[in-house]
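Lab channel / #folding
Pinned by the channel admin:
"Please post every new chain as: sequence first, then the structure tokens as a reply. Keep commentary short and put observations after the output so the thread stays searchable."

First post following the new format, from NK:
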Amino acid sequence: MLVAFAFNAIESNATSESVQCNRECTAEKLECSDECRMGEDAIDRSEVIQCLRECRIESEDCEESCNCMSKCEKKSQPCEQKCKSNTQQDPEASEDCIEMCAEEVEQCMDLCGE
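Reply from TO:
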């Protein structure tokens, strides 16, 4: 459940994907916890505790995916800087280089969900 929200973050360009992912995980964790406390089984303390444990596990999975995304983003920065700093390249070659960096990041991000 939470891991799916982690990958919704990929659609956002306003902030880094990993930051957006962490925000989504936090929101989903709070929603899950609230559902545990307010749900039908909230009267049974053991059910609430079990539900909260499940929320924590899902949250950890989500955060792990976000951390993976963050590592991918950090790897892309040196690649893009290298492309931009090579003044000997023509603009088209520089764009190709940046595209290659983006593809590497995308491949890295794909591994975050596995």
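NK: Residues 2-112 form one domain.
TO: also worth noting, The CA atoms of residues 69 and 104 lie 12 Å apart.
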